Amino acid sequence: MISLETRIELRVPGVVQIRYDSSTGKSFSETLQGLLDRSPDVIHAGEIRDLGTARIAIRTAVTGRKTLGTAHTSDAVSGLRRLRDMGIEAGRLAESCHAVISLRLVRKLCQDCRKKVDPAADPPSREVKLAQRLGVKPAFGAVGCKSCAGTGYKGQIPLAEVLELTHPVKSFFASDPSDADLLKVARKDGMRTFAEVGLDLASQGLTTIEEIERVVGIVPLHSETASSAGPVLVVDDEEQDRTLLRGVLDGMGFQVVEAETGASAKRLLDERVHDFSLVLLDSDLSDMNGRDLLREVRKSLVTQSLPVIVLSVSSDPREEIELLEAGADDYIQQPVVAERVEARVRAVLRRSGVELS
Ligand SMILES: [Zn+2]
Fold first, then answer.
1. How far is the CA of 115 from the centre of ligand 1 (A)?
2. Which of 10, 99, 302, 355 is 20 to 30 Å from 24 at the Cα level?
3. What are phi and psi of 104, to 5 degrees?
4. Residues 29 and 141 in one domain
């Protein structure tokens, strides 16, 4: 077994691992071609980035040698798409490819402090809410102790999505279908998606639904009322602005929590007492720049996917771009118009999977 790698990260016993050296003047695909002269039983073609390498890998596979290769894609189906886009014909790919395995890592629940979820707790925990939306039973939740540095998780476990090119999948793929159609056929033939495998891991108490949701974003668009979606956090140092925003959100049916400073907003978010559905953030707070708070929010695993709309008096497009780049989901220029706030809130929530009824 021969493996061609750009950087050898892990020595594997029994495998001849060769580091690709560009200083020889040979391209990656030429080096790979050279290795085939040694007649390996198994060849790991490294990362397939170009048509040349992809062609050699496919040709080797067709001649009956077990060939492995990697590519950076978001899921198993798009692994095939990547090779198609490089220029490999669908029929040729269907003929030579056995399976695509897509891998992600999820955090493993700390076995010292994980806690059985109480489905009847009031208010329901985020884990219970997610389980309800997905129609599954919650198992264990993250707590946090000394051995996991207070995070509730310790170590990581792989989450694998396997697309096997079974006979029905092969013949369907040869007709060059869309990714969505291919996924449908593969699932009918037994494929399990990241979400399904992940929810299984959660039901075994190895991780949480919240973690699976963070890593694969599984929660489909679902209808909620403003009061069940969770409160909105309004962060603004001007009382007048807070009153105006509260009025709009009240009118929509939301519960509103206010913070006058960045520090108190940060505290409210860290405490996790409220399961906020959205944050409205003034970009110019008295104690800190809204952009810095936004970066903090995006850094924290707990709040990294929380929708945030930033309000700013600036009409400078650069300010808007900087805020969006710092992680804002939307931007509203002040002075605000009530109807615009309402429409933006609805649109941002929809993008995060919540359709307000
Ligand atoms: Zn722990």
1. 10
2. 10
3. -135, 165
4. no
Residue 182 belongs to what domain range?
Answer: 72-220
CA 142–ligand 1 middle distance (angstroms) = 8
Distance from the alpha carbon of residue 282 to the mean position of ligand 1, in angstroms: 36
Total number of domains constituting the chain: 3
Residues 178 and 293 in one domain: no
In this structure, are 86 and 202 located in the same domain?
Answer: yes
Same domain assignment for residues 177 and 282: no
Tell how far the Cα of 111 is from the centroid of ligand 1, in angstroms: 7
Phi, then psi, of 107 in degrees rounded to 5:
-75, 140
pLDDT tens-digit readout, 206-254 = 999 999 988 887 766 667 788 878 899 999 999 999 999 999 999 999 9
Question: Do 52 and 160 sit in the same domain of this protein?
Answer: no
Distance 141 CA to ligand 1 centre (A): 11
Total-model pTM: 0.67
- Report the alpha-carbon distance of residue 165 to residue 83 in Å, rounded: 14
